[in-house]
Amino acid sequence: MRPHDLSLLRAPSAPTLTPDGHTVAVAVSRIDLDDNTYRSDIWAMPTDGSAAPSRFTNGPRDYAPRFSPDGRWLAFLRAGEAEDSKPQIHVMPVAGGEPRQLCEHPLGVERIAWSPDSTRIAYVARVPEEGRYGTDEDVPPGKEPPRRITTLQFKLDNVGYVTDRRQHVFVIDALAEHAEPLQITRGDYDHGDPAWSPDGASIAFVSARHPDRDYDQLNDLFVAPADGGDAVKLTRTTVPLGRPAFSPDGATIWFVATADAEAGRNAGLWSVPADGSAEPRRLTDAERWDVDNFDAGPLDLDVEPDAVTTVALERGAVHLYRFPTDGGEPRRLIGGRRQVREHAGAGGVSAAVITDDQSIGEVVAVRDGRERVLSDFGGQLAREVALRPMTELETKSADGYPVHGWVVKPAGSPPFPVLLMIHGGPFTQYGYKLFDEAQVYAGAGYAVVMGNPRGSSGYGEAHGRAICFDYGNLDSADLLALLDAALEDPDLDRDRVGVLGGSYGGFMTTWLVGHSKRFRAAISERACNAFDSFEGSSDIGWEFLRVYIGEDPERVKAQSPLTYADKIDTPMLLIHSEEDWRCPIEQAQRLFVALKRRRAEVEMLIFPAEGHELSRSGLPSHRVARFDAILEWWDRHLKPRDA
Predict the structure, then answer these.
(1) Are 389 and 376 in contact (CB under 8 A)?
(2) What's this model's pTM, rounded to 2 decimal places?
(3) Looking at the chain, which terminus has fewer C-beta neighbours within 10 angstroms, N or C?
(4) What are 22-47's pLDDT values in tens digits?
């Protein structure tokens, strides 16, 4: 795969089913390199496979489709051609007709949910402070008044400042012409994840309204009248929660939460009486089950009278399970060496977007235990690009702990130069999906070694929490053990090895070259290199040190890669974005200056107008330029034998 092959990717998302389960619709996104933008359309297909998918909308950027409960309407979000166009709610009849925009919010709409009677839509939108964010045409961003900051949580990567544009829940009549939205929530709080009660009288949502909300990551579940009125808090401010969904009888609300706000916790299924009469109860075992996939879009719970269906992370896979509400053994609906990205259920059918190492995602329907693949969105990519498979690799770390990962080997004649690639997080996972990074590097002749060291998700809560307050110890040992195991393959050239990673992977890259001389070159991207300044500059720094690093100054220094910059002799390329508020650019600049003053070989590549998500959702031309720069660096230091 080459960098420009990004234009061949067709990624389905957000499946939605008609109530009879006969039809599924998805958004299908693609990268338009000619126009340097992203495009997305809504496609629909019968779940019995009797017809091929057909394009349902043809907007420039249509996504997040939702069929109405009566099956007559399709709601979705549409953003226009202009780069600064914000997504707005549109509704169209399923039987045919033009989409109609329901309302206009200056900062767009983020999430939609139909009422049970198919007449109203609840949604989330940010409400800007008057005179900011374009609400006054005569006041451009550079001429807005200054912001007075009084809270710790005042900014968010890829969003910006948040205290002057809070998220609120609205309800609008979806069928009436020129209907006005009704704002359900008020106050200086963020609100999200609206879910209707079965009788349509109430809306559940999540929010942090407790007095100490600025000093923790906890929040609560609330219920408010759908026609407006005071919200009632149902939970006790003990867990960080989300994804609420009512039981069919309206007596219970299910949601996803971790046991507390500490790092590396598995997310589980919880329930609470809809009247708040009892404490929340956890259904799933904390060590075994993690039901939140941060690598996917919003994941709705599919709640039946006796079960809740959702995803679970398992050793690089993401499977779909049906969890009995009485605590019985869950039943796996979709398994195998693949990942369920998103899913929906209706009419006895489960529809899911599934990816594996050879597919960015196809739509699959499951009825009565039988799977049927409904789409071929990845067909062109498979026909035109020689995708390389993932080969599983298992070994043991220095202390005997099991380590799991994969190797993606290129075509051609060995031995191949090797790249140890490290994921971010750290509480995320590499796994069974088509990963453009690995495919591009393998396409250029490099063998890619990638795995899930301690600190990753998908291997139990103890695995995820193993590195808390001890960054760079067990995790680095696991990664080096995985690399050593991979290098036992004679096809891999142990004398030409590089290391790269982004975010936590960037941290670990800098850490490894500060503690080892075994790498020919390194690329540290959007990294955290110095926790002392990260605490104040990052949007999550105020909390990150408390849950992962500790607050003792000597321990903070000992776990910061910058501390060991005087030991780095490996040539380094530092990649960062100017508007990264998760790992701010000062993290790269401090390392760059420390190395440059020693006259070490170091370069820094800075992308304008990009945040922490550059490699996944940045401007298409920037994503291609990033790949080109990375390949040039490896070509310079690890030039493949047949290049």
Answers:
(1) no
(2) 0.97
(3) C
(4) 999 999 999 999 999 999 999 999 99
